[in-house]
Amino acid sequence: MDLSRSTIFIILFLNFLLLPFSSRSSSHYSTLVYKTCSNRTSFNNNNNQLLLSPRSYSQTLTSLFNQLIAQSSQSKFFRTKELALDESAVVSGLFQCREDIAIEDCFRCVNSLPPYISSNTLCTGSTSARVQLQGCHIQYNTENLSAETTNGDETEGSNNGNSIIVHKECGEPISDNEAYFKFRELLENAFAALENEIAKSEDRFYRNNYEWVELMAQCESDSDTCECNECISDAVRFAKEECSASISARIYLDKCFLSYLYHSGSYENPGIPANSLPGARSNSHNTPKLAAIVAGGAAVLFLGFIFISLLNSRLKKNDYE
Fold this sequence. Notes:
Elements: H1 3-27, E1 32-37, H2 54-71, E2 77-83, E3 89-97, H3 103-111, H4 113-118, E4 128-133, E5 136-144, E6 158-160, E7 163-170, H5 177-198, E8 205-210, E9 213-219, H6 225-242, E10 248-253, E11 256-262, H7 287-320
Antiparallel strand pairs: 1-4, 2-3, 3-5, 4-5, 6-7, 7-10, 8-9, 9-11, 10-11
Helix pairs in contact: 1-7
């Protein structure tokens, strides 16, 4: 065995050891959070619905998805349009990844989205859809160019002020009255800090801890400052109204999202569980998990060192022979 072959073998061996750690760290980004699909289909002629053959629409959608996937290896946000083959309709679409994930994880996340849409259980034939995973989302909308009045279709959702509420999740409530009032005061301050900081953020993303509250928020990357501030303000208001006593929440609006988690140990209330922030990796509040990862990494390095030492000894022995 020469040195080059042994080096390649060592690299492959270490990659094999490290694979479980890397796959576990990014696989949760592709977990489904929610999906919304239009009831309209591309090939029915009812009222103002589109007249496209299933085959033509499928080809247009596939071409759109291919563009989005290709761009996700270079950027965390991209918006584009695709004209139908018969030029009777145009499909606009976009993807966005969370700003705190690596570009490689963004690509994997976006690449896993089309099967959710094209499967028999999700959004088959819909003229518009939005699918949200933990690390990214994709959405598309179809416009009928041949109609007298051009109206884009909209996915399901309810209107709250100036924003479309697409999805919400409220965590378990706080039952202790004294803890509740302290929690509400802390959350008010945390929300104020979030709104102040995201207004100054160039990438329209914020993630931080405010005392015992972990927060994350993001607007569509091409939103201007006013649009982003308004959307986040609506998300904060909705979180207060609908999840007022919840220790965690996820609020998804049409143009932004907000999530928060109130961690255990605060205000001497042991009854509040310490879950990780919905859709995010926990930082300083997940010490046992971090310690396990560090210990595992150290074990891998130690095994690799022993393997390399044994291999070098073998090579030196062969040289003497």
